[in-house]
Amino acid sequence: MSLERAVGNESSFGSVWRLAGPCLFFLAVAHPTAAEGADGHAGGSTDRAVEILREAFRNRYDLSFTAEVELVIGRREGAKRRRVLRVATLHEPGAYRALGQLTFPEYLRGMSILSISMGRKDHQAFVYLPSEARVRRISITHKDDAFLGSDLTYEDFERRYAEDCALRMLPDSETQGEGVHVVECRPVAKLKYERAEFVIAKSDSVILEIREYRAGREEPFRRMIAPRDAVTPLDEHFIATRLSFESLERNTVTDVTFRDLRSRSIDRRLFTVGALERRPDLERTSTGEDGG
Which of 123, 222, 259, 267 satisfies CB 3.0 to 4.6 Å to 212 for a cystine? Predict the structure, then answer.
């Protein structure tokens, strides 16, 4: 049963979230040190890979903003489905909070997801579903399951850390007409991909492409591409406002567009279980003039 169907079926909610709910976020596990490579040995190229990937993640995540996010889901040829969310993030030293609230389609409207990370080893996640009219805490296990039937995974929504991977540098390359670093990540957690390649612009640390590979495969099964012409400056960061997530095995694609992107901080009290229980109107709050 899909999550969308479960939203309108209160009796099935419990069984669905025992299976699907844990896929929302993940628990931290033991990580190799920053100076260790995929084989556990120290090396200068690994130190460089850690530095480059850390800066790319800092550029992407370490800011507070609000936005409307549209997902267009489907095969390259054929009918498409739309999902629209209001999103708010709050970055503070040692803490990252994210809140997403669906506004379209109507039968999913009001569904809200809250993630609170107080560093790599302290993650909490909660969900509010209108059909339940209450907040439930999510038991965290997997993070690479599909988000609402799209080509995105829940990992694509959370704050990432270079220390979650064993890293090494691959040869520098060029994409979209500019020089890029290529960093290989072998996740220490067991995921659907054995390794991933992050293609990072040398000029501004924007992640222009991510390629994910299954064990023993030479071709990626999933890919994210950020067009260079969709990168915009925001509070001394550079953010891609259009992304395409491609499932090369299923021949499907999910196009993600950020609109009304604003660098501004919302009151941290919005990022609480109590706020979810009060059913905040994030659509109105995140477009208002003040941050409260």
Answer: 222
